[in-house]
Protein backbone atom coordinates (compact mmCIF):
# COMPACT_ATOMS: atom_id res chain seq x y z
CA UNK A 1 0.00 0.00 0.00
CA UNK A 2 2.74 2.41 0.96
CA UNK A 3 5.29 2.64 -1.77
CA UNK A 4 7.94 5.10 -2.68
CA UNK A 5 6.40 8.18 -4.23
CA UNK A 6 7.51 10.70 -6.77
CA UNK A 7 6.48 14.17 -5.67
CA UNK A 8 7.24 17.84 -5.81
CA UNK A 9 6.26 19.62 -2.59
CA UNK A 10 5.53 23.31 -2.83
CA UNK A 11 5.40 24.72 0.68
CA UNK A 12 3.78 28.12 1.09
CA UNK A 13 5.15 29.58 4.31
CA UNK A 14 8.49 27.79 3.98
CA UNK A 15 10.20 30.14 6.43
CA UNK A 16 7.53 29.74 9.11
CA UNK A 17 7.34 28.01 12.44
CA UNK A 18 5.26 25.04 11.31
CA UNK A 19 7.52 24.32 8.35
CA UNK A 20 10.63 24.33 10.52
CA UNK A 21 9.26 22.51 13.55
CA UNK A 22 7.13 19.88 11.86
CA UNK A 23 7.33 19.68 8.08
CA UNK A 24 11.07 19.50 7.45
CA UNK A 25 11.75 16.94 10.20
CA UNK A 26 8.79 14.83 9.02
CA UNK A 27 9.86 14.97 5.38
CA UNK A 28 13.35 13.97 6.43
CA UNK A 29 12.02 10.92 8.28
CA UNK A 30 10.11 9.89 5.15
CA UNK A 31 13.26 10.37 3.08
CA UNK A 32 15.36 8.43 5.58
CA UNK A 33 12.89 5.55 5.58
CA UNK A 34 12.82 5.45 1.80
CA UNK A 35 9.25 6.65 1.23
CA UNK A 36 10.74 9.58 -0.64
CA UNK A 37 13.82 9.12 -2.68
CA UNK A 38 15.56 10.63 -5.65
CA UNK A 39 12.34 11.59 -7.43
CA UNK A 40 11.41 14.26 -4.98
CA UNK A 41 12.00 17.97 -4.54
CA UNK A 42 10.72 20.76 -2.34
CA UNK A 43 10.15 24.37 -3.24
CA UNK A 44 9.90 26.55 -0.17
CA UNK A 45 8.24 29.90 -0.69
CA UNK A 46 7.79 33.01 1.42
CA UNK A 47 8.30 36.69 0.85
CA UNK A 48 11.88 36.95 2.09
CA UNK A 49 14.62 36.93 -0.56
CA UNK A 50 16.57 33.81 0.44
CA UNK A 51 19.03 31.86 -1.69
CA UNK A 52 18.78 28.10 -2.13
CA UNK A 53 21.90 27.68 0.00
CA UNK A 54 20.52 29.77 2.81
CA UNK A 55 17.26 27.85 2.69
CA UNK A 56 19.07 24.50 2.74
CA UNK A 57 20.91 25.63 5.86
CA UNK A 58 17.62 26.53 7.52
CA UNK A 59 16.24 23.11 6.59
CA UNK A 60 19.39 21.39 7.91
CA UNK A 61 19.19 23.34 11.16
CA UNK A 62 15.58 22.31 11.61
CA UNK A 63 16.85 18.72 11.77
CA UNK A 64 19.03 19.29 14.83
CA UNK A 65 17.74 16.77 17.33
CA UNK A 66 16.47 14.46 14.60
CA UNK A 67 18.89 11.57 14.40
CA UNK A 68 20.26 10.89 10.96
CA UNK A 69 23.64 10.71 9.35
CA UNK A 70 25.23 13.79 7.91
CA UNK A 71 25.50 12.52 4.33
CA UNK A 72 21.82 11.59 4.34
CA UNK A 73 20.88 15.02 5.69
CA UNK A 74 23.03 16.75 3.05
CA UNK A 75 21.47 14.60 0.32
CA UNK A 76 18.01 15.45 1.66
CA UNK A 77 18.73 19.20 1.84
CA UNK A 78 20.02 19.20 -1.74
CA UNK A 79 16.43 18.52 -2.87
CA UNK A 80 15.25 21.88 -1.45
CA UNK A 81 14.84 25.05 -3.53
CA UNK A 82 13.72 28.46 -2.43
CA UNK A 83 11.50 30.86 -4.35
CA UNK A 84 10.72 34.32 -3.01
CA UNK A 85 7.01 34.62 -3.53
CA UNK A 86 4.23 36.93 -2.44
CA UNK A 87 1.11 34.82 -2.55
CA UNK A 88 -1.04 37.80 -3.46
CA UNK A 89 1.00 38.66 -6.57
CA UNK A 90 -0.22 36.77 -9.65
CA UNK A 91 3.04 37.36 -11.54
CA UNK A 92 4.94 35.41 -8.90
CA UNK A 93 3.03 32.25 -9.78
CA UNK A 94 4.46 32.37 -13.29
CA UNK A 95 8.02 32.24 -11.90
CA UNK A 96 6.96 29.53 -9.50
CA UNK A 97 5.45 27.46 -12.30
CA UNK A 98 8.66 27.65 -14.28
CA UNK A 99 10.73 26.45 -11.33
CA UNK A 100 8.21 23.70 -10.60
CA UNK A 101 8.30 22.48 -14.21
CA UNK A 102 12.11 22.56 -14.29
CA UNK A 103 12.37 20.54 -11.07
CA UNK A 104 9.70 18.16 -12.28
CA UNK A 105 11.89 17.42 -15.31
CA UNK A 106 15.15 17.34 -13.36
CA UNK A 107 13.87 14.84 -10.76
CA UNK A 108 11.53 12.98 -13.14
CA UNK A 109 8.56 13.59 -10.90
CA UNK A 110 5.92 13.04 -13.58
CA UNK A 111 3.62 15.81 -12.52
CA UNK A 112 2.86 14.77 -8.92
CA UNK A 113 2.41 17.86 -6.77
CA UNK A 114 1.76 18.39 -3.08
CA UNK A 115 0.81 21.99 -2.32
CA UNK A 116 1.23 22.60 1.42
CA UNK A 117 -0.30 25.81 2.76
CA UNK A 118 1.70 26.42 5.95
CA UNK A 119 0.61 30.00 6.38
CA UNK A 120 -2.21 32.19 7.53
CA UNK A 121 -5.61 30.84 6.40
CA UNK A 122 -6.56 34.28 5.09
CA UNK A 123 -4.44 33.38 2.03
CA UNK A 124 -5.74 29.84 1.41
CA UNK A 125 -8.41 30.93 -1.07
CA UNK A 126 -6.07 33.26 -2.97
CA UNK A 127 -3.35 30.64 -3.26
CA UNK A 128 -5.71 27.90 -4.41
CA UNK A 129 -7.25 30.23 -7.02
CA UNK A 130 -3.86 31.24 -8.45
CA UNK A 131 -2.58 27.65 -8.48
CA UNK A 132 -5.47 26.91 -10.81
CA UNK A 133 -5.44 30.03 -12.95
CA UNK A 134 -1.66 30.02 -13.43
CA UNK A 135 -1.62 26.31 -14.29
CA UNK A 136 0.53 25.06 -11.47
CA UNK A 137 -1.89 22.19 -11.19
CA UNK A 138 -0.60 19.56 -13.58
CA UNK A 139 -2.55 17.41 -16.01
CA UNK A 140 -0.38 14.30 -15.84
CA UNK A 141 0.22 13.57 -12.13
CA UNK A 142 -1.68 13.81 -8.86
CA UNK A 143 -2.26 17.24 -7.33
CA UNK A 144 -3.05 17.51 -3.63
CA UNK A 145 -3.68 20.51 -1.45
CA UNK A 146 -2.77 20.19 2.22
CA UNK A 147 -4.21 22.86 4.47
CA UNK A 148 -3.84 23.71 8.10
CA UNK A 149 -6.36 24.76 10.67
CA UNK A 150 -8.21 26.96 11.31
CA UNK A 151 -10.70 26.24 8.53
CA UNK A 152 -12.88 29.32 8.85
CA UNK A 153 -14.08 31.03 12.03
CA UNK A 154 -17.74 30.06 11.64
CA UNK A 155 -19.83 28.11 9.13
CA UNK A 156 -20.19 31.08 6.74
CA UNK A 157 -16.48 31.86 6.49
CA UNK A 158 -15.59 28.16 6.27
CA UNK A 159 -18.06 27.71 3.41
CA UNK A 160 -16.70 30.73 1.59
CA UNK A 161 -13.17 29.37 1.96
CA UNK A 162 -14.25 25.93 0.82
CA UNK A 163 -16.00 27.35 -2.24
CA UNK A 164 -12.86 29.26 -3.19
CA UNK A 165 -10.68 26.20 -2.88
CA UNK A 166 -13.24 24.03 -4.66
CA UNK A 167 -12.86 26.15 -7.81
CA UNK A 168 -9.44 24.57 -8.30
CA UNK A 169 -9.37 21.38 -6.23
CA UNK A 170 -12.06 18.77 -5.84
CA UNK A 171 -12.74 17.23 -2.44
CA UNK A 172 -10.64 14.13 -3.17
CA UNK A 173 -7.60 16.39 -3.70
CA UNK A 174 -8.01 18.36 -0.45
CA UNK A 175 -6.29 17.11 2.70
CA UNK A 176 -7.38 19.13 5.74
CA UNK A 177 -4.86 18.52 8.49
CA UNK A 178 -6.18 17.86 11.96
CA UNK A 179 -3.02 16.68 13.67
CA UNK A 180 -5.02 14.90 16.38
CA UNK A 181 -6.00 12.42 13.67
CA UNK A 182 -2.31 11.61 13.26
CA UNK A 183 -1.85 10.69 16.90
CA UNK A 184 -1.21 7.04 17.64
CA UNK A 185 -3.89 6.61 20.30
CA UNK A 186 -6.55 8.45 18.31
CA UNK A 187 -5.83 6.12 15.39
CA UNK A 188 -6.27 3.31 17.91
CA UNK A 189 -9.94 4.16 18.54
CA UNK A 190 -11.30 2.20 15.54
CA UNK A 191 -9.03 -0.75 16.40
CA UNK A 192 -10.34 -0.88 19.96
CA UNK A 193 -13.95 -0.34 18.97
CA UNK A 194 -14.25 -2.60 15.95
CA UNK A 195 -11.53 -5.17 16.56
CA UNK A 196 -12.91 -6.57 19.80
CA UNK A 197 -16.14 -8.36 20.53
CA UNK A 198 -16.10 -6.98 24.11
CA UNK A 199 -16.07 -3.33 23.12
CA UNK A 200 -18.08 -3.77 19.95
CA UNK A 201 -20.92 -5.34 21.90
CA UNK A 202 -20.92 -2.84 24.74
CA UNK A 203 -20.45 0.38 22.77
CA UNK A 204 -23.97 1.80 23.03
CA UNK A 205 -26.47 3.35 25.40
CA UNK A 206 -27.48 0.03 26.90
CA UNK A 207 -24.08 -0.35 28.56
CA UNK A 208 -22.37 3.02 28.42
CA UNK A 209 -23.42 5.62 30.98
CA UNK A 210 -21.43 8.58 29.70
CA UNK A 211 -18.36 9.50 27.68
CA UNK A 212 -15.78 12.05 28.77
CA UNK A 213 -13.09 13.75 26.74
CA UNK A 214 -10.49 16.06 28.25
CA UNK A 215 -7.85 18.00 26.32
CA UNK A 216 -5.98 19.87 29.00
CA UNK A 217 -2.95 22.05 28.56
CA UNK A 218 -0.73 23.40 31.30
CA UNK A 219 0.67 26.25 29.23
CA UNK A 220 -1.04 29.58 28.63
CA UNK A 221 -1.10 31.35 25.27
CA UNK A 222 2.66 31.98 25.36
CA UNK A 223 3.70 34.04 22.32
CA UNK A 224 0.58 33.13 20.32
CA UNK A 225 -1.66 35.77 21.93
CA UNK A 226 -2.34 37.56 18.66
CA UNK A 227 -3.73 34.40 17.09
CA UNK A 228 -5.56 33.28 20.22
CA UNK A 229 -7.44 36.57 20.55
CA UNK A 230 -9.11 35.78 17.23
CA UNK A 231 -9.76 32.19 18.11
CA UNK A 232 -10.30 31.03 21.69
CA UNK A 233 -10.77 27.46 22.92
CA UNK A 234 -14.00 26.87 21.02
CA UNK A 235 -12.44 27.51 17.60
CA UNK A 236 -8.96 26.30 18.49
CA UNK A 237 -9.92 22.96 20.06
CA UNK A 238 -13.63 22.18 19.99
CA UNK A 239 -14.69 22.74 16.40
CA UNK A 240 -11.88 20.62 15.02
CA UNK A 241 -10.06 18.24 17.39
CA UNK A 242 -12.87 17.57 19.87
CA UNK A 243 -15.54 17.11 17.21
CA UNK A 244 -13.28 14.77 15.22
CA UNK A 245 -12.54 12.61 18.27
CA UNK A 246 -16.21 12.54 19.30
CA UNK A 247 -17.15 11.38 15.81
CA UNK A 248 -14.60 8.54 15.97
CA UNK A 249 -15.89 7.51 19.39
CA UNK A 250 -19.55 7.53 18.44
CA UNK A 251 -19.76 6.55 14.76
CA UNK A 252 -21.34 3.25 13.73
CA UNK A 253 -19.10 0.56 12.32
CA UNK A 254 -17.96 1.41 8.78
CA UNK A 255 -18.56 -1.29 6.17
CA UNK A 256 -14.87 -1.28 5.38
CA UNK A 257 -11.83 0.46 6.78
CA UNK A 258 -11.53 2.91 3.90
CA UNK A 259 -11.89 6.69 3.89
CA UNK A 260 -15.19 6.78 2.01
CA UNK A 261 -16.95 4.43 4.46
CA UNK A 262 -15.37 5.89 7.59
CA UNK A 263 -16.27 9.41 6.52
CA UNK A 264 -19.84 8.34 5.85
CA UNK A 265 -20.16 7.05 9.43
CA UNK A 266 -18.35 9.99 11.00
CA UNK A 267 -20.65 12.36 9.19
CA UNK A 268 -23.75 10.50 10.36
CA UNK A 269 -22.47 10.69 13.94
CA UNK A 270 -21.80 14.42 13.64
CA UNK A 271 -25.21 15.00 12.11
CA UNK A 272 -26.81 13.29 15.10
CA UNK A 273 -25.21 15.67 17.61
CA UNK A 274 -27.98 17.86 18.94
CA UNK A 275 -27.68 21.49 17.88
CA UNK A 276 -28.57 23.58 20.89
CA UNK A 277 -31.14 26.33 20.83
CA UNK A 278 -29.66 29.66 21.99
CA UNK A 279 -31.59 29.43 25.24
CA UNK A 280 -30.15 25.96 25.92
CA UNK A 281 -26.50 26.97 25.60
CA UNK A 282 -25.85 28.10 29.18
CA UNK A 283 -27.19 24.89 30.67
CA UNK A 284 -24.97 22.76 28.41
CA UNK A 285 -21.79 24.69 27.68
CA UNK A 286 -19.66 26.84 29.95
CA UNK A 287 -16.69 29.04 29.18
CA UNK A 288 -13.77 30.17 31.24
CA UNK A 289 -10.73 32.40 31.11
CA UNK A 290 -7.67 31.94 33.28
CA UNK A 291 -6.60 34.35 35.95
CA UNK A 292 -3.23 34.37 37.70
CA UNK A 293 -2.24 31.38 39.81
CA UNK A 294 -2.63 31.35 43.58
CA UNK A 295 0.96 32.39 44.17
CA UNK A 296 0.68 35.19 41.63
CA UNK A 297 3.67 33.90 39.66
CA UNK A 298 1.65 33.15 36.50
CA UNK A 299 -0.04 35.98 34.63
CA UNK A 300 -3.76 36.18 33.99
CA UNK A 301 -4.79 35.84 30.33
CA UNK A 302 -5.74 39.53 30.22
CA UNK A 303 -2.20 40.45 31.30
CA UNK A 304 -0.49 38.42 28.57
CA UNK A 305 1.13 40.05 25.55
CA UNK A 306 -1.14 41.00 22.64
CA UNK A 307 -4.25 40.40 24.75
CA UNK A 308 -6.88 43.08 25.34
CA UNK A 309 -7.10 44.02 29.04
CA UNK A 310 -10.84 43.37 28.93
CA UNK A 311 -10.67 40.41 26.53
CA UNK A 312 -13.74 38.17 26.51
CA UNK A 313 -11.94 35.34 24.76
CA UNK A 314 -12.43 31.94 26.34
CA UNK A 315 -9.38 29.88 27.29
CA UNK A 316 -11.54 27.06 28.68
CA UNK A 317 -14.69 25.32 27.54
CA UNK A 318 -16.68 22.44 28.93
CA UNK A 319 -19.86 21.06 27.50
CA UNK A 320 -22.44 18.33 27.36
CA UNK A 321 -23.20 16.95 23.91
CA UNK A 322 -26.26 14.80 23.32
CA UNK A 323 -26.44 12.51 20.34
CA UNK A 324 -29.90 11.90 18.98
CA UNK A 325 -29.71 8.45 17.49
CA UNK A 326 -30.62 4.95 18.56
CA UNK A 327 -27.12 4.02 19.72
CA UNK A 328 -26.51 7.06 21.93
CA UNK A 329 -29.82 8.50 22.98
CA UNK A 330 -29.60 9.43 26.68
CA UNK A 331 -25.79 9.19 26.92
CA UNK A 332 -24.10 12.51 27.63
CA UNK A 333 -20.74 13.12 25.98
CA UNK A 334 -18.85 15.56 28.20
CA UNK A 335 -16.00 17.46 26.63
CA UNK A 336 -13.60 20.01 28.03
CA UNK A 337 -10.45 21.77 27.01
CA UNK A 338 -8.48 24.58 28.50
CA UNK A 339 -5.20 26.33 28.95
CA UNK A 340 -3.26 26.72 32.21
CA UNK A 341 -4.85 23.68 33.75
CA UNK A 342 -3.13 21.41 36.27
CA UNK A 343 -1.17 19.44 33.71
CA UNK A 344 -1.03 18.53 30.05
CA UNK A 345 -3.16 15.50 29.37
CA UNK A 346 -5.49 14.29 26.66
CA UNK A 347 -7.76 11.54 27.87
CA UNK A 348 -10.94 9.72 26.95
CA UNK A 349 -13.03 8.01 29.62
CA UNK A 350 -15.77 5.61 28.65
CA UNK A 351 -17.89 5.17 31.77
CA UNK A 352 -20.00 2.00 31.80
CA UNK A 353 -23.26 1.51 33.63
CA UNK A 354 -23.54 -0.27 36.95
CA UNK A 355 -24.44 -3.93 36.99
CA UNK A 356 -28.21 -4.28 37.14
CA UNK A 357 -28.17 -6.14 40.43
CA UNK A 358 -25.55 -5.99 43.17
CA UNK A 359 -25.51 -9.47 44.72
CA UNK A 360 -22.81 -8.63 47.24
CA UNK A 361 -25.06 -7.56 50.03
CA UNK A 362 -26.28 -4.24 51.20
CA UNK A 363 -23.73 -3.18 53.79
CA UNK A 364 -22.00 0.10 53.04
CA UNK A 365 -18.84 -1.29 51.57
CA UNK A 366 -20.79 -3.64 49.30
CA UNK A 367 -23.47 -1.27 48.28
CA UNK A 368 -21.63 0.75 45.71
CA UNK A 369 -19.91 -1.24 43.07
CA UNK A 370 -18.18 1.52 41.14
CA UNK A 371 -18.73 1.94 37.45
CA UNK A 372 -16.26 0.31 35.09
CA UNK A 373 -14.23 2.79 33.12
CA UNK A 374 -12.17 2.38 29.99
CA UNK A 375 -9.57 5.13 29.84
CA UNK A 376 -7.65 5.89 26.68
CA UNK A 377 -4.84 8.34 27.32
CA UNK A 378 -3.69 10.04 24.13
CA UNK A 379 -0.80 12.17 25.40
CA UNK A 380 1.66 12.66 26.95
CA UNK A 381 1.28 9.04 28.08
CA UNK A 382 -0.13 6.50 25.66
CA UNK A 383 -2.20 4.21 27.81
CA UNK A 384 -5.23 1.95 28.00
CA UNK A 385 -6.69 1.42 31.41
CA UNK A 386 -9.70 -0.65 32.30
CA UNK A 387 -10.93 0.03 35.82
CA UNK A 388 -13.09 -2.82 37.09
CA UNK A 389 -14.48 -4.20 40.35
CA UNK A 390 -12.56 -7.07 41.92
CA UNK A 391 -12.42 -8.74 45.31
CA UNK A 392 -10.27 -6.96 47.81
CA UNK A 393 -7.36 -9.18 48.83
CA UNK A 394 -7.76 -10.72 52.28
CA UNK A 395 -10.37 -12.18 54.53
CA UNK A 396 -14.04 -11.50 54.24
CA UNK A 397 -15.56 -10.24 51.05
CA UNK A 398 -15.22 -6.68 49.96
CA UNK A 399 -14.93 -5.32 46.47
CA UNK A 400 -12.64 -2.61 45.28
CA UNK A 401 -11.35 -1.10 42.09
CA UNK A 402 -8.53 -2.63 40.10
CA UNK A 403 -6.80 -1.03 37.12
CA UNK A 404 -5.82 -3.19 34.18
CA UNK A 405 -3.14 -1.08 32.59
CA UNK A 406 -1.22 -1.05 29.38
CA UNK A 407 1.23 1.78 28.73
CA UNK A 408 3.34 2.22 25.62
CA UNK A 409 6.95 2.23 26.78
CA UNK A 410 9.19 5.27 26.25
CA UNK A 411 11.11 3.23 23.64
CA UNK A 412 7.94 2.39 21.73
CA UNK A 413 6.86 6.02 21.87
CA UNK A 414 10.27 7.21 20.72
CA UNK A 415 10.07 4.89 17.71
CA UNK A 416 6.51 5.85 16.80
CA UNK A 417 6.33 8.28 13.89
CA UNK A 418 5.21 11.75 14.82
CA UNK A 419 1.66 12.78 13.77
CA UNK A 420 2.88 15.01 10.94
CA UNK A 421 5.10 12.28 9.55
CA UNK A 422 2.19 9.85 9.42
CA UNK A 423 -0.18 12.39 7.92
CA UNK A 424 2.29 13.50 5.27
CA UNK A 425 2.82 9.91 4.22
CA UNK A 426 -0.93 9.31 4.10
CA UNK A 427 -1.40 12.39 1.95
CA UNK A 428 1.44 11.30 -0.30
CA UNK A 429 -0.30 7.96 -0.76
CA UNK A 430 -3.70 9.56 -1.24
CA UNK A 431 -5.10 7.95 1.92
CA UNK A 432 -7.71 10.33 3.30
CA UNK A 433 -8.83 8.37 6.39
CA UNK A 434 -7.10 10.71 8.83
CA UNK A 435 -8.12 14.00 7.24
CA UNK A 436 -11.30 15.97 7.79
CA UNK A 437 -13.86 16.01 4.98
CA UNK A 438 -15.61 19.28 4.22
CA UNK A 439 -18.97 17.86 5.31
CA UNK A 440 -17.52 17.04 8.73
CA UNK A 441 -16.02 20.50 9.08
CA UNK A 442 -19.35 22.06 8.13
CA UNK A 443 -21.35 19.98 10.66
CA UNK A 444 -18.87 20.79 13.40
CA UNK A 445 -19.30 24.50 12.71
CA UNK A 446 -23.08 24.14 12.89
CA UNK A 447 -22.72 22.80 16.43
CA UNK A 448 -20.11 25.39 17.48
CA UNK A 449 -21.74 28.45 15.90
CA UNK A 450 -24.80 28.46 18.15
CA UNK A 451 -22.62 28.30 21.25
CA UNK A 452 -20.20 30.98 20.06
CA UNK A 453 -23.04 33.30 19.05
CA UNK A 454 -24.81 32.89 22.34
CA UNK A 455 -21.63 33.65 24.27
CA UNK A 456 -20.47 36.58 22.23
CA UNK A 457 -23.89 38.17 22.13
CA UNK A 458 -23.53 38.36 25.91
CA UNK A 459 -20.09 39.87 26.16
CA UNK A 460 -21.14 43.17 27.74
CA UNK A 461 -20.41 42.05 31.25
CA UNK A 462 -16.62 41.97 31.29
CA UNK A 463 -16.53 41.01 34.96
CA UNK A 464 -17.38 37.34 34.36
CA UNK A 465 -13.70 36.74 33.54
CA UNK A 466 -11.27 35.67 34.82
CA UNK A 467 -13.16 32.81 36.42
CA UNK A 468 -10.53 30.18 37.12
CA UNK A 469 -7.10 30.10 38.65
CA UNK A 470 -4.09 29.14 36.58
CA UNK A 471 -3.12 25.68 37.77
CA UNK A 472 -6.70 24.54 38.49
CA UNK A 473 -9.02 22.37 36.38
CA UNK A 474 -11.14 25.30 35.22
CA UNK A 475 -14.22 27.07 36.56
CA UNK A 476 -16.45 25.43 39.16
CA UNK A 477 -19.26 25.36 36.63
CA UNK A 478 -17.32 22.67 34.75
CA UNK A 479 -17.68 20.24 37.66
CA UNK A 480 -21.30 21.27 38.17
CA UNK A 481 -22.16 20.37 34.58
CA UNK A 482 -21.54 16.74 35.53
CA UNK A 483 -22.73 16.76 39.14
CA UNK A 484 -26.08 18.07 37.90
CA UNK A 485 -26.39 14.73 36.07
CA UNK A 486 -25.11 12.71 39.05
CA UNK A 487 -21.72 12.27 37.35
CA UNK A 488 -18.22 13.60 37.90
CA UNK A 489 -15.05 14.07 35.87
CA UNK A 490 -13.16 10.78 36.08
CA UNK A 491 -9.90 12.54 35.24
CA UNK A 492 -9.30 14.84 38.16
CA UNK A 493 -5.67 15.67 38.88
CA UNK A 494 -6.78 18.18 41.55
CA UNK A 495 -7.80 15.39 43.91
P1 LIG B 1 4.28 31.60 10.70
O1 LIG B 1 3.78 32.98 10.93
O2 LIG B 1 5.45 31.14 11.50
O3 LIG B 1 4.65 31.43 9.18
C1 LIG B 1 3.92 32.03 8.13
C2 LIG B 1 4.68 31.95 6.83
O4 LIG B 1 3.94 32.60 5.81
C3 LIG B 1 6.06 32.59 6.85
O5 LIG B 1 6.92 31.78 6.09
C4 LIG B 1 5.81 33.93 6.14
O6 LIG B 1 6.97 34.45 5.53
C5 LIG B 1 4.81 33.52 5.10
N1 LIG B 1 3.99 34.63 4.57
C6 LIG B 1 3.20 35.50 5.23
N2 LIG B 1 2.61 36.36 4.37
C7 LIG B 1 3.00 36.00 3.13
C8 LIG B 1 2.70 36.47 1.80
N3 LIG B 1 1.87 37.50 1.57
N4 LIG B 1 3.27 35.83 0.76
C9 LIG B 1 4.11 34.80 0.96
N5 LIG B 1 4.42 34.31 2.17
C10 LIG B 1 3.88 34.90 3.25
O7 LIG B 1 3.02 30.64 10.89
P2 LIG B 1 3.02 29.10 11.35
O8 LIG B 1 3.01 29.05 12.83
O9 LIG B 1 4.06 28.35 10.63
O10 LIG B 1 1.57 28.63 10.88
C11 LIG B 1 1.25 28.35 9.54
C12 LIG B 1 -0.12 27.72 9.46
O11 LIG B 1 -0.14 26.53 10.22
C13 LIG B 1 -1.27 28.57 10.01
O12 LIG B 1 -2.43 28.25 9.29
C14 LIG B 1 -1.42 28.05 11.43
O13 LIG B 1 -2.70 28.28 11.94
C15 LIG B 1 -1.17 26.59 11.20
N6 LIG B 1 -0.73 25.87 12.37
C16 LIG B 1 0.48 26.11 12.93
C17 LIG B 1 0.90 25.38 14.01
C18 LIG B 1 2.26 25.59 14.62
O14 LIG B 1 2.60 24.79 15.48
N7 LIG B 1 3.02 26.58 14.25
C19 LIG B 1 0.06 24.40 14.55
C20 LIG B 1 -1.18 24.16 13.96
C21 LIG B 1 -1.56 24.89 12.86
Automatic annotation (TrEMBL):
<dbReference type="GO" id="GO:0050661">
    <property type="term" value="F:NADP binding"/>
</dbReference>
<dbReference type="GO" id="GO:0006006">
    <property type="term" value="P:glucose metabolic process"/>
</dbReference>
<feature type="binding site">
    <location>
        <position position="344"/>
    </location>
    <ligand>
        <name>substrate</name>
    </ligand>
</feature>
<dbReference type="GO" id="GO:0004345">
    <property type="term" value="F:glucose-6-phosphate dehydrogenase activity"/>
</dbReference>
<feature type="binding site">
    <location>
        <position position="217"/>
    </location>
    <ligand>
        <name>substrate</name>
    </ligand>
</feature>
<comment type="similarity">
    <text>Belongs to the glucose-6-phosphate dehydrogenase family.</text>
</comment>
<dbReference type="InterPro" id="IPR022675">
    <property type="entry name" value="G6P_DH_C"/>
</dbReference>
<comment type="pathway">
    <text>Carbohydrate degradation; pentose phosphate pathway; D-ribulose 5-phosphate from D-glucose 6-phosphate (oxidative stage): step 1/3.</text>
</comment>
<keyword id="KW-0560">Oxidoreductase</keyword>
<dbReference type="GO" id="GO:0009051">
    <property type="term" value="P:pentose-phosphate shunt, oxidative branch"/>
</dbReference>
<keyword id="KW-0119">Carbohydrate metabolism</keyword>
<dbReference type="InterPro" id="IPR019796">
    <property type="entry name" value="G6P_DH_AS"/>
</dbReference>
<feature type="domain" description="Glucose-6-phosphate dehydrogenase NAD-binding">
    <location>
        <begin position="10"/>
        <end position="188"/>
    </location>
</feature>
<dbReference type="InterPro" id="IPR036291">
    <property type="entry name" value="NAD(P)-bd_dom_sf"/>
</dbReference>
<feature type="binding site">
    <location>
        <begin position="13"/>
        <end position="20"/>
    </location>
    <ligand>
        <name>NADP(+)</name>
    </ligand>
</feature>
<feature type="binding site">
    <location>
        <position position="339"/>
    </location>
    <ligand>
        <name>substrate</name>
    </ligand>
</feature>
<keyword id="KW-0521">NADP</keyword>
<dbReference type="InterPro" id="IPR022674">
    <property type="entry name" value="G6P_DH_NAD-bd"/>
</dbReference>
<keyword id="KW-0313">Glucose metabolism</keyword>
<dbReference type="Pfam" id="PF02781">
    <property type="entry name" value="G6PD_C"/>
</dbReference>
<dbReference type="InterPro" id="IPR001282">
    <property type="entry name" value="G6P_DH"/>
</dbReference>
<feature type="binding site">
    <location>
        <position position="183"/>
    </location>
    <ligand>
        <name>substrate</name>
    </ligand>
</feature>
<dbReference type="GO" id="GO:0005829">
    <property type="term" value="C:cytosol"/>
</dbReference>
<feature type="binding site">
    <location>
        <position position="149"/>
    </location>
    <ligand>
        <name>NADP(+)</name>
    </ligand>
</feature>
<feature type="active site" description="Proton acceptor">
    <location>
        <position position="241"/>
    </location>
</feature>
<dbReference type="Pfam" id="PF00479">
    <property type="entry name" value="G6PD_N"/>
</dbReference>
<feature type="domain" description="Glucose-6-phosphate dehydrogenase C-terminal">
    <location>
        <begin position="191"/>
        <end position="489"/>
    </location>
</feature>
<feature type="binding site">
    <location>
        <position position="179"/>
    </location>
    <ligand>
        <name>substrate</name>
    </ligand>
</feature>
<comment type="function">
    <text>Catalyzes the oxidation of glucose 6-phosphate to 6-phosphogluconolactone.</text>
</comment>
<feature type="binding site">
    <location>
        <position position="236"/>
    </location>
    <ligand>
        <name>substrate</name>
    </ligand>
</feature>
<feature type="binding site">
    <location>
        <begin position="86"/>
        <end position="87"/>
    </location>
    <ligand>
        <name>NADP(+)</name>
    </ligand>
</feature>
<feature type="binding site">
    <location>
        <position position="47"/>
    </location>
    <ligand>
        <name>NADP(+)</name>
    </ligand>
</feature>
<protein>
    <recommendedName>
        <fullName>Glucose-6-phosphate 1-dehydrogenase</fullName>
        <ecNumber>1.1.1.49</ecNumber>
    </recommendedName>
</protein>
Amino acid sequence: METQQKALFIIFGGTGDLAKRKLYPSLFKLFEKGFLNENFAVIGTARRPWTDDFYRNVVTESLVGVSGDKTKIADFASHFYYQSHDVTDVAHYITLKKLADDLDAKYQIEGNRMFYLAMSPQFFGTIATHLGSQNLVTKNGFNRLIIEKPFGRDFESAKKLNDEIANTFDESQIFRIDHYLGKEMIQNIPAIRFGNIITQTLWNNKYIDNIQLTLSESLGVEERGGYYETSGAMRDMFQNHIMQVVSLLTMDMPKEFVASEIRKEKLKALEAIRILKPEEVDANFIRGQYGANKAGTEKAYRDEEQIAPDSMMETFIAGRLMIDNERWSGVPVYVRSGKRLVEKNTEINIVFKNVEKNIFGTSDEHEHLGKDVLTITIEPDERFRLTINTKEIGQGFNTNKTNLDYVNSPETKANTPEAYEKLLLDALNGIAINFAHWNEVAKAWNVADVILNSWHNNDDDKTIFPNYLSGSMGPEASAKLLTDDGNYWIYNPEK
